[in-house]
């Protein structure tokens, strides 16, 4: 990344608040911050938390912390206080902030002060291969977030900033990132890595504040951004009723949760051939991605550098077309959960990552997802996965989004409770959904109740948080 900034020279690589900042200027910020960190005792293996926004200074601070070999813990704005305390307790020696520091935090290093430190030479990466480079916390949608450890060796093996290693779908995506919108915080693994991809592709990073779509695309003449499934559904509905001029838009990368085939096809119809459907995890980085020409509802063909196996409950590989649990190996995958050997042993096993996602590979190698192993309902003592229920309900023409949860039931122990975001304001009747699900999946999975909602509750990561629906 330092080489890419040096090569950019006077070319603007970052826009923020009306400023255009060149590659040379961002690179010139890295040296002082690195010197300031070293003066504060930060070096290889030191834990540093980053509570920063989306600015060129924040981007430089992340690069500087990696240059000195620190172990980074990014903290997203909006996390609950107990999650912030949890992350600051992960052997963190200092926290770098560009605004207010959280109460009770470790020693605070203010970014403005670090930027004012005299540089002691050009930044030279000091990270040691086996050291942990970053702790990326999971979304917390299943409870307290886990901190996934990625080593400097894993980050070195990543293809993001190395164009010769880009898989075909990324070679298609990269030229579309000319003016790539970022928002929220660069502490987000997704935001940071697509920002570095944009810069490696010769584009620029544009900070969107506020990040509302489609307004931010129009205002910043953006060519690309990352979007969650709920926000994509809202954008498609908005474009149908009150279309904005999105003629500059060339790529929307859908991230965070699976995109059903019907909604995927609708997004391509309304927005054009700009939808990329990415599949990855905090533990693995990108696993696979569907481009605009790939089958809707799929996540494309995994690239050659990624190994995907579909296994049954006994751990045996299953034939193409058979649904099972996905195990993957990626060049830049994590190695463990920090301080959690029990969870680490369950997920990181024999060089593979147990994703706990369900899916199948078809005869052409296209990967399709079908749910989570622990997202289940137990009806009359029989275990059923809820992912297929959501996909069937989402096919109803009056449903924009569908979520299914297990609810207590006097007759069957548990039953399906469906929550739907209505399309065009009309919610389908319970009888219609019961008939649809019964015909496709059987009566045991037919919902016993349906609740219309304006939008799903969201975790701080922006992903739908189904745990909150029954409340």
TrEMBL record:
Report how it sits in the membrane.
Answer: Peripheral membrane protein
Q: Which superkingdom heads the taxonomic lineage of this protein's source?
A: Bacteria
Q: What SUPFAM superfamilies does the entry give?
A: Acetyl-CoA synthetase-like
Q: Which Pfam families match?
A: AMP-binding, AMP-binding_C
Q: Name one GO molecular function term.
A: long-chain fatty acid-CoA ligase activity
Task: Name its cellular compartments.
Answer: Membrane
Enzyme class, one word? Answer: ligase
Q: E.C. number, please?
A: 6.2.1.3
Name the UniProt key words of this record, in alphabetical order.
Ligase, Membrane
Pathway(s) per entry: Lipid metabolism; fatty acid beta-oxidation
For this protein, the record's PROSITE patterns field holds: AMP_BINDING
Q: Where is the AMP-dependent synthetase/ligase domain?
A: 6-338
Which Gene3D superfamilies is this protein grouped with? 3.30.300.30, N-terminal domain of ligase-like
Where's the AMP-binding enzyme C-terminal domain?
A: 389-463
| InterPro entries attached to this UniProt entry | AMP-bd_C, AMP-bd_C_sf, AMP-binding_CS, AMP-dep_synth/lig_dom, ANL_N_sf, ATP-dep_AMP-bd_enzyme
Sorted alphabetically, the Gene Ontology cellular component annotations on this record are: membrane
Tell me what this protein is called: Long-chain-fatty-acid--CoA ligase
Lineage of producing organism: Bacteria, Bacillati, Actinomycetota, Actinomycetes, Pseudonocardiales
């Amino acid at each position: 990344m330092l080489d890419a900034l040096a090569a950019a020279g006077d070319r603007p690589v970052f826009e923020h608040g009306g400023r255009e900042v060149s590659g040379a200027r961002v690179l010139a910020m890295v040296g002082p911050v690195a010197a300031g960190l070293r003066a504060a005792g930060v070096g290889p293996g030191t834990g540093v938390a980053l509570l920063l926004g989306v600015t060129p200074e924040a981007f430089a601070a992340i690069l500087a912390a990696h240059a000195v070999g620190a172990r980074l813990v990014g903290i997203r704005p909006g996390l609950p206080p107990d999650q912030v305390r949890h992350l600051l307790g992960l052997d963190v020696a200092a926290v770098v902030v560009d605004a207010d520091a959280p109460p009770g935090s470790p020693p605070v290093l203010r970014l403005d002060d670090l930027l004012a430190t005299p540089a002691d030479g050009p930044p030279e990466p000091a990270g040691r291969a086996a050291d942990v480079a970053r702790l990326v916390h999971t979304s917390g949608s299943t409870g307290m977030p886990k901190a996934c450890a990625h080593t400097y060796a894993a980050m070195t093996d990543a293809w993001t900033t190395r164009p010769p290693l880009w898989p075909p779908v990324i070679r298609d995506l990269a030229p579309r990132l000319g003016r790539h919108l970022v928002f929220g915080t660069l502490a987000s693994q997704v935001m940071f890595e697509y920002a570095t991809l944009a810069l490696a592709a010769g584009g620029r990073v544009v900070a969107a504040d506020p990040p509302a779509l489609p307004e931010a695309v129009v205002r910043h003449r953006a060519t690309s951004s990352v979007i969650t499934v709920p926000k994509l559904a809202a954008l498609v509905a908005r474009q149908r009723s009150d279309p904005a001029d999105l003629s500059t838009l060339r790529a929307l990368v859908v991230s965070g949760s699976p995109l059903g085939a019907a909604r995927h096809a609708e997004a391509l119809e309304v927005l054009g051939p700009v939808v990329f459907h990415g599949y990855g995890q905090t533990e693995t980085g990108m696993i696979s991605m569907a481009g605009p020409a790939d089958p809707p509802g799929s996540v494309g063909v995994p690239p050659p550098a990624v190994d995907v196996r579909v296994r049954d409950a006994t751990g045996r590989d299953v034939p193409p077309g058979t649904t099972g649990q996905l195990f993957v190996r990626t060049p830049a995958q994590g190695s463990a959960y920090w301080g959690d050997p029990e969870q680490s042993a369950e997920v990181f096993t024999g060089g593979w990552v147990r994703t706990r996602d369900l899916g199948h590979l078809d005869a052409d190698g296209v990967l399709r997802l079908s749910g989570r192993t622990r997202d289940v309902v137990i009806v009359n003592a029989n275990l059923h996965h809820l992912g297929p229920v959501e996909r069937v309900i989402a096919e109803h023409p009056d449903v924009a989004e569908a979520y299914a949860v297990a609810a207590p039931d006097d007759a069957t122990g548990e039953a399906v409770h469906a929550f739907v975001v209505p399309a065009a304001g009309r919610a389908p009747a319970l009888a219609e959904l019961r008939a649809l699900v019964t015909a496709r999946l059987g009566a045991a999975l037919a919902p016993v109740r349906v609740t219309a909602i304006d939008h799903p509750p969201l975790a701080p990561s922006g992903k739908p948080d189904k745990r909150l629906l029954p409340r």
